[in-house]
Amino acid sequence: MEAFERMLLENKAWATEQTLKEPDYFERLAVDQSPAVLWIGCSDSRVPAEIIVHAQPGEIFVHRNIANQLITTDFNGLSVLQYAVDVLKVRDVIVCGHYNCGGIRAALQKQSARLLIVNKWLKHVKDIYRLHADEIEALGTEEERIGRLVELNVIEQVHNLAHTSIIQQSWAQEHGPTLHGWVYGLRDGLIKELISLPPGSGVSPIYQYVDFSE
Ligand SMILES: [Zn+2]
């Protein structure tokens, strides 16, 4: 049986099981969503947002891409952020990276002409490496260097969030959301907190929108 065929069968079994447990489960979920959290994670198949924090459908608004980035020219990520913040009014935005990230590993290597688009996406991670090259190169093993760039990338993405007009306007007018940077360990399944920026956290003046800070 192909993987997709098994998925369709599993879906039928799951829907039946959920309905047996709670007859109005799907009717209740179909009405609306009010997730408290926006999750920005990596596309890696081993880091499924809902499963690793034991969440249920309806609890997390999810956006995933290679190396969990929030790039200010990416309309996909920005539209998810705007909808989550301005419409769903999420209380927390979590950027969750993970150790052994293939995207981060690739960013530390030479570029492949076969992967021109991926290269462009990972260019932003290379820029983060360049800012912290001395610290990263002082580490003894490749795994340590990748792990540290995983952490620095998460922290940078949290700052990228704080630099958007979406977050700055919401901080000024809604007093939320709080921004979090987490990293997940594939070897132990545990999440480590790296950074937390509550509403109104200091943003360097060059990234401030005058409209929301005066
Ligand atoms: Zn990854």
From TrEMBL:
**Could you give a GO molecular-function term held by this entry?**
zinc ion binding
Q: Which GO terms describe its biological process?
A: carbon utilization
Query: Known Gene3D superfamilies for this protein?
Result: Carbonic anhydrase
- What is catalyzed by this enzyme? hydrogencarbonate + H(+) = CO2 + H2O
The protein's matches in InterPro entries, at most eight in alphabetical order, are given as: Carbonic_anhydrase, Carbonic_anhydrase_CS, Carbonic_anhydrase_sf
Cofactor requirements of the protein:
Zn(2+)
Q: Which residues bind Zn(2+)?
A: C42, D44, H98, C101
Annotated transmembrane regions = none
The top EC class, named as a word, is lyase
Query: What is the free-text note on the cofactor?
Result: Binds 1 zinc ion per subunit.
E.C. number, please? Answer: 4.2.1.1
Q: Which UniProt keywords apply?
A: Lyase, Metal-binding, Zinc
User: Function, please?
Assistant: Reversible hydration of carbon dioxide.
Which family is annotated? Belongs to the beta-class carbonic anhydrase family.
Recorded protein name is Carbonic anhydrase
Please report the organism this UniProt entry assigns to the protein. Answer: Methylococcus geothermalis
User: Taxonomically, what lineage is the organism?
Assistant: Bacteria, Pseudomonadati, Pseudomonadota, Gammaproteobacteria, Methylococcales
